[in-house]
Amino acid sequence: xxxxWTDLPCYLNGHLGRLGDAKVPVMDRGFLFGDGVYEAIPVxxxxxxxxxxxxxRLSHSLRSLRIEDPYEREAWLDLFHSLVAHLPEVEDxxxxxxxxxxxxxxxxxxxxxxxxxVLAYTQPLVAISAEKRxxxxxxxxxxxxxxxxGDIKSTSLLGNVLARQMSADQGADETLLIRDxxxxxxxxxxxxxxxxxxxLTPPPGELLLEGVRVGLxxxxxxxxxxxxxxxxxxxxxxxxxxxxxxxSASKEIAAVTRLDHExxxxxxxxxxxxxxxxxxxxxxxxxxxxxxx
Length: 293
Fold this sequence. Notes:
The chain has 293 residues and is α+β, with helices and mostly antiparallel strands. The protein has helices at 29-33, 51-64, 73-85, 130-135, 158-169, 212-224, 235-239, 275-290; strands at 9-12, 15-18, 36-44, 47-48, 93-100, 117-124, 137-143, 174-179, 182-186, 190-195, 198-201, 228-230, 243-248, 252-259, 262-263. It folds into two domains: 5-124, D-amino Acid Aminotransferase, Chain A, domain 1 (2-Layer Sandwich), CATH 3.30.470.10; 130-290, D-amino Acid Aminotransferase, Chain A, domain 2 (Alpha-Beta Barrel). The strands form two sheets. Strands 7, 8, 9, 10, 11, 12, 13, 14 and 15 form a nine-stranded mixed beta sheet that branches. Strand 14 (252-259) and strand 15 form a beta hairpin. The chain starts with 8 loop residues before the first strand and ends with a helix. The mean pLDDT is 95.
């Protein structure tokens, strides 16, 4: 289904309408400072996927910015289900949710007693094409020059925008960020390395966002008997990896087959999606059918 983005169902501060009609005051601190947080929640078969984990992360981000959560959990769920129902012909969707501190005179200090701005809309889910999934993604590496609270899913994403553009300028799909010689994450994804059959990813901390799919892949690894370790990953381990994977709400799980214009992996699988990726991707597809609410 294709439709203009302006016609997508949109919720703004208690009112449900068209996304193209939604407007916020120019003094909203989300507009002035990027003073807000967001989530993107996938919907498969009209069922919310891992929504509890997304709402847990939303709560963490709001607490970190000292923004009071405007709704109880059941109210969030009611809102999401209402949005999904307003795209009746679309089975797979993505709900975008954004909460800003609200509207106030411009001042860097956090104002008291203002009402948060709540925006949510849904759109058809845009998946990686079958051809792209078969051939794998191309990535480049770059210095991680962003601020040091990557654990907050903030709307202040200029650093991520600049990082992603570095790969776009080279015809690549994602930028993998390196800080002080160690991997942090991608511009819009978590990054995993496979070495000797084991799956590795950097541990959670303030320098990176712990994606909802981190916990999910750890569950898959336990089910499949794949060793999974959260530990620092040196930049040199990327260039010698057996496989490199990306996870995010939009990418689900994807194989990286080229890094800095060189093939990833070894032997017959060099430059091709590997066996650990294949097992985890299949597990992800099974989970989409079994989970959701």
